[in-house]
Amino acid sequence: KVLVTGALGQIGTELVVKMREIYGADNIIATNRSRRAGHVLVESGAFEELDVTDAKGVHDLAKKHNVDTIIHMAALLSATAENNPLMAWNINMGGLMNTLEVARELNCKFFTPSSIGAFGPSSPKVNTPQDTIQRPTTMYGVNKVAGELLCDYYFHKFGVDTRGVRFPGLISYAQEPGGGTTDYAVNIFYDALKQKKYTSYIAAGTYMDMMYMPDAVNCIIDLMEADTSKLKHRNAFNVTAMSFEPEEIAAEIRKHIPEFTMDYDVDPMRQAIANSWPDSIDPTAAKEEWGFKTEYDLPKMTVAMLEQLKAKGV
Ligand code: VAH
Q1: Which of 9, 167, 193, 263 lies at a 20 to 30 A Cα distance from 51?
Q2: Helix H or strand E segment including 15
Q3: Is the dihedral of CA 223, 229, 235, 239 positive or negative?
């Protein structure tokens, strides 16, 4: 039985659908701080409200469902965290500690994502190595580095089978993201379809790693099914599918919507966050240790996103 926190979030939504297909709907317990009536997951299977900052609530729910795996996705993303640093610490670190403790007590396998946000201005910017300096300058980045270290600690101190990846920006059609810096690369598709125009809050020339959500979901499943004896790293594998800047994704969209135009209204805070992150990261360790691979590059993702959003009625 798998407990997923933050299941109604951008990753959780598609992850739970895929895991239910693979492992059976009754074996994946979707939880979220609040239920969202009408959300595909709330209407289609086991759903429980869970606030990950409630240690007893996490323990009792995991015990009630006799879970053996915890996929901890509940967190505040970079821009939200930068606007509410104390709340971000409490939710991101408090939630992680509570779920790690339950994983220790109930002997659960554990996954939580880190991010390219775990790197900072002093990390090598291009082809950022798996093991390198990590001095992020955002609260989100501090949470992610602390989270990587905490998950390593629970592995070597308590033997908890913790695993994780450093996700790039994730692009999805099923559930809009909330409060990220890379989300311009999602918003651009919605606006291209609705008004054939997008105003980017990230400046031209700002490269960031990205990945289409189906590849990200497969990443989590592949890593969780990997042979633990092959893992030299445990948490925070660099994973990425592509790196692009706003003009490149706009040009790709224009191949399908020729009249699409984009202009800029740069948001200083999210631009500063983006500037502190790598341009591109090196996923070699993930490829070597558990066969990480992706199917979608920018052209293929653009076709898929436009098709799926049109089908959704955007
Ligand atoms: C964010 N989408 O923008 C998330 C992610 C690497 C980016 O961590 O905060």
Answers
A1: 167
A2: helix 10-23
A3: negative
